[in-house]
Backbone:
């Protein structure tokens, strides 16, 4: 099946300034793809290039198998876009904005827009210039999704939303996936990406440094291990095990990070009386920081 | 917690949106643009129309002193402002308004109108949502030009109507046809500068830059035309000024060639602007 989004060495430079460099990725139909990176890493540039707002300096991008430049109008008919800072003429209400976009899209009614507005508690009748950032963002979500797009491109979608609405948003993303729609979600909120996404692409200084299945990446990565023994043990015994790092001893307690197979750790611990053992998976944030802390060497 | 990767599924048929249509998108842009500019007939048309009405209403009171006034004008000044004879209310309105204030103001309105939907929208970040819809950039430019043409036409009609009604009430008995052709002649001139603004918007990202370039050219053309009438060495340069082809429709009627030429030049500039806008980044 043709990927919904496919880029090949996609590059965008702004004169001498970096944008994105050789970004190659594929997003499959029906998946929620998280695009993760700190501010300025190139997330928005990637999305705006895919949407043909920015013209690539090099490489290519295809959406629904169509060329992102030549076929942009056909692509946009199937895409819903929420910019990072949703902005529109401040004198217009959400209803006027959505009506305008509905007319362009040939969507006959605003029924789904009203349902979404109710769900996200968006005030559709006040000029958006009078709304807070979070409430403008809700209008942005409505205008991005009211036409049931096959692909939702959401750039920092929860910025300004309160925790309840963030929760509602994550539920909404899950439902979109249930309906077979594809979501490309850019974020620097690791928790959000971890909860919502099937796969995650990590972008660093304009380069895509890793694309991982979220379940696999969190499963495969190191564990924080804490073992309380009945009596003190020699830490060298554990230090010798391949994959063990950052080992510390405090009385009868050993704490360390264990990369890879845990079998040798468990067997080494089993040679001593164990009072307690705790294995904690790292958060995506820790994994993310690991990527960034090692020149992106994942 | 993370969610397991699902097998890809095909979006439901119900989610399939309507196929994109340039005509539908153009209609939406024009309707939106007309709504955005709905106050222009009141603000621009109303204020300039009241000024025109005041001129027309004054005419009965000053009519008899016009011969003396004409004799007091230096010939060069009369040439510069197309004042041949101030023997009618229409000629008076022509000399007072249609040779300076109205063409410059309406051309500026056209620049502002054309700039609003492209450069101003880009600068404020509105285009990210608009251009992510199935709307070709050239359609947006075409829609802006149509809106500009319609708004300018309505504003000129309001000015004409207010001038004529006020003059008629005041007993000046202006001719609606003569006044109408005088104001209508401003339309293609304004379209030229509307097109120029769209050309500038095809290259420049900031509304202030687009306005500065367009208004700068407007002022330069006006000055070249004025100076060309006053100084023979500059006269050959007038061919490059749109104002040379504007003339005076009140005195001479509408020159169809100049009228069509200016309007088509405006459309050509807008087309070039659309092509350039299509090639550049939207920031």
Residues:
């Amino acid at each position: 099946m043709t990927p919904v989004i496919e880029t090949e060495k996609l590059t965008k430079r702004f004169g001498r300034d970096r944008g994105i460099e050789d970004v190659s990725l594929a997003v499959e139909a029906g998946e929620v793809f998280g695009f993760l990176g700190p501010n300025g890493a190139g997330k928005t540039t990637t999305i705006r290039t895919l949407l043909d707002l920015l013209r690539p300096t090099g490489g290519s991008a295809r959406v629904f198998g169509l060329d992102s430049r030549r076929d942009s109008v056909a692509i946009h008919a199937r895409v819903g876009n929420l910019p990072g800072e949703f902005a529109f003429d401040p004198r217009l209400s959400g209803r006027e904005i959505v009506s305008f976009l509905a007319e362009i899209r040939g969507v006959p009614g605003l029924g789904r827009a009203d349902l979404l507005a109710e769900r996200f508690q968006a005030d559709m009748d006040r000029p958006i210039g009078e709304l807070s950032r979070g409430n403008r963002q809700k209008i942005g979500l409505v205008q991005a999704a009211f036409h049931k797009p096959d692909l939702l491109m959401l750039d920092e979608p929860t910025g300004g939303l309160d925790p309840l609405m963030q929760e509602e948003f994550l539920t909404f993303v899950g439902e979109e996936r249930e309906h077979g729609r594809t979501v490309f979600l850019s974020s620097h909120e690791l928790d959000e990406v971890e909860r919502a996404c099937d796969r995650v692409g990590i972008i660093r200084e304009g380069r895509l440094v890793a694309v991982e299945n979220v379940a696999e990446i969190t499963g495969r990565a190191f564990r924080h291990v804490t073992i309380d023994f009945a009596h003190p043990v020699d830490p060298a015994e554990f230090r010798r095990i391949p994959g063990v790092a950052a080992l510390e001893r405090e009385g009868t307690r050993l704490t360390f990070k264990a990369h890879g197979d845990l079998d040798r750790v468990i067997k080494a611990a089993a040679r001593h009386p164990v009072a307690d053992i705790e294995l904690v998976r790292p958060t995506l944030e820790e994994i993310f920081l690991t990527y960034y802390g090692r020149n992106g060497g994942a | 917690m993370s969610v397991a990767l699902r097998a890809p599924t095909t979006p439901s048929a119900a989610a399939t949106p309507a196929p994109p249509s340039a005509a539908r998108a153009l209609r939406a842009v024009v309707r939106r643009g007309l709504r955005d500019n709905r106050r222009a007939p009141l603000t621009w048309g109303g204020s300039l129309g009241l000024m025109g009405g005041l001129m027309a209403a004054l005419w009965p009171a000053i009519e008899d002193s016009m011969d003396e006034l004409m004799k007091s004008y230096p010939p060069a000044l009369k040439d510069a402002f197309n004042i041949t004879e101030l023997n009618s209310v229409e000629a008076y309105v022509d000399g007072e308004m249609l040779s300076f204030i109205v063409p410059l103001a309406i051309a500026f309105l056209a620049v502002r109108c054309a700039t609003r939907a492209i450069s101003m929208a880009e600068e404020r970040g509105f285009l990210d949502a608009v251009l992510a819809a199935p709307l070709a950039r050239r359609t947006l430019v075409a829609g802006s030009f149509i809106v500009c043409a319609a708004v300018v036409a309505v504003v000129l009609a309001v000015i004409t109507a207010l001038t004529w009604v006020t003059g008629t009430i005041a007993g000046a008995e202006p001719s609606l046809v003569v006044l109408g052709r005088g104001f209508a002649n401003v339309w293609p001139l304004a379209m030229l500068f509307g097109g120029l603004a769209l050309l500038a918007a095809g290259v420049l990202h900031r509304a202030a830059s687009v306005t500065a370039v367009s208004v700068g050219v407007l002022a330069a053309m006006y000055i070249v035309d004025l100076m060309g009438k006053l100084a023979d060495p500059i006269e050959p340069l007038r061919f490059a000024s749109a104002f040379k082809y504007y003339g005076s429709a009140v005195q001479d009627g509408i020159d169809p060639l100049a009228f069509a030429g200016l309007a088509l030049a405006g459309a050509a500039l807008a087309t070039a602007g659309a092509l350039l806008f299509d090639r550049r980044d939207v920031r």
In short: The two ends of chain B are 36 Å apart (CA to CA). The longest helix of chain B spans residues 137-169. Chain B touches chain A through 46 residues (CB under 8 Å).
